[in-house]
């Protein structure tokens, strides 16, 4: 099957690639029940050695500059209470951690979670964290521009491999809150 974005040798429905996904992502695909059928979640094999955005885009197509998204884990603090959340923004933008994220989570301080926390709490590899398969009780803050993008390239839970997903899927994931201005230039 041909991928709807990018230049990849092959795209396969994610339900056929469960063994290539981390356990939380595979479990989420296995239990999928969204407006979009699970077969529309596509897996593409990628080389982790070319995961840097500039090299990745050069190798797999310039259209990925506008259709790929990053999922990052943030930690918010208010007093002694700590909150973990995930943020999904288009790759050409940065997460507004000190503005939109802090206000949405109702915390005094927000920052990117340490790598050990992000990987330990998600069960995913650093550089491959994806919104599909996150802990269900986490807030998932999604920039509206991601939802408005027809097809979006995201992590697969591992550094090797990516998922290509219709953008509208993200609004229906557990804990999702769609926000304008979450991603800033």
Features:
aminoacyl-tRNA deacylase activity, five-stranded mixed sheet, 11 strands, YbaK protein, YbaK/aa-tRNA-synt-asso_dom_sf, alpha+beta, about 20% helix, four-stranded antiparallel sheet, single chain, about 180 residues
Short description:
The protein has 185 residues and is an alpha+beta fold. Helices cover 22% and strands 28% of the residues. The protein has one domain: YbaK/aminoacyl-tRNA synthetase-associated domain (YbaK protein).
Broad CATH class: Alpha Beta
In the CATH hierarchy, the architecture is Alpha-Beta Complex
Radius of gyration: 15 Å
Report the CATH topology name.
YbaK protein
Estimate nothing, just give the exact number of structural domains.
1
Could you walk me through the main structural features you see in this protein, from its secondary elements to its overall organization?
The protein is of the alpha+beta class. It has one domain: Alpha-Beta Complex (YbaK protein), CATH 3.90.960. It has six helices and eleven strands. It is globular and about 50 Å long. The model has no long low-confidence stretch (mean pLDDT 95).
